[in-house]
Amino acid sequence: MKKFLSVALMLLMMTGLTAGCVGGSDADDSGEKKITVYMTVGEEPLKQQLREIGKEFEKKYHTKVEFQFPGNDYENILKVKMAANDLPDVFDTHGWAKIRYGKYLADLRGEPWASKMTDTIRPVLTDEKGKVYALPLNEAKDGIAYNADVLKQYGIAPPQTFDQLMAAADQIKKKSKGQVTPFFFYGAESSSLAQFFDQFATPLLISPKKNEAQALLNNKFDWNKWTYLPQKFLEMHKKGYINKDVLTARSTDLPQLFAQGKVAFAVGGPSFLEQAKQINPKLNAGYMPVPAIVPGDQPSFSGGERYTLGAWKDSKHLKEAKQFIAFVAQPENLKKIAETSKLPPGIKGIEADLGDLTPYYKKYENTRVFPYFDRVYLPNGMWDVMGTLSQELLAGSITPQQYSQRMKEEYHRLRNQLR
């Protein structure tokens, strides 16, 4: 009987908790309204900046802001919440504003900032009917951050091609006698490994004049052509161009090592440089587009959404959610976010000081920006597949050819689920 009562009580408590969650946030015990804000932000300085903006909003509107930063679990948590139609009041669409979250988002076209989106981010966050899906907090231009002091020390110019990038890595490893690691990846968080494949898939398959874009979209792609990427990545690992602890390293390790001059290149966005600069104020950091792979092609960036704020259309506190987004959209707040994330604003008219990166964004302002490869050419779910397969590749569990075969299998499986 005691066991039965315990189970019954537990079920009753779970039912109560579930009921309390349905429909988004509600008032807290003091009667103050509360909204939840879910973000994919991983960098501590930017988390702190957002919390400070949230505190200012609370003072002005007497609405509590509860931030959640779930990290690698973000995508799975949002999928569960979509299935239950119980989304956060405000959430980051992390590249999927229209495709994945579109039907759950309120239309923000009437907001003052909506007409001021940059020409490059507008097509990403609006549709042909004029719906505005989310506020861009910044605009992604993913390339490769590099320690300019290290490159200068070893007489290396920013590489324009993948072959030049590999030659630079070899030179750095040999001349530093192994004291400087050419590339740092934090494989404990598989997204770091997936980032390499997503960024370099564009110069391999999309940006060249003769490309595989239509073959990928039409389900006619020859996956043997993918094998180049895992072959090169494994080669980088075996030659010591990648940190030895790649499978256990974490994102929190990167700023310290980069600041100390122990890492030359970091593939992805440059947000971590804010922390690195705090550790070593004398650090000189550079930024460059992704080098070309195919002869005759030019370097390019991967881009689109980085961090955004969208409002759940069925939120009990939709008014407050929109107020919060509008508050964050104030120029002084977007300026702070851009400067902390080291990424250009997604709203026109905001002059942000991006520190060391300012001359690089200026230098490469006319460089082509292609949408993230996975968001256009791969079905939903393939990002996790790339991350897991990359871990298995480095662990020696699969070969580059098996990597491509598994990509093909998962590509077809996930595409079929969408039908």
TrEMBL record:
Transmembrane segments: none
Signal peptide feature range: 1-19
Domain of life: Bacteria
Pfam families: SBP_bac_1
Keywords from the UniProt entry: Cell membrane, Lipoprotein, Membrane, Palmitate, Signal
Coiled-coil intervals, chain numbering: none
The protein, known as: Extracellular solute-binding protein
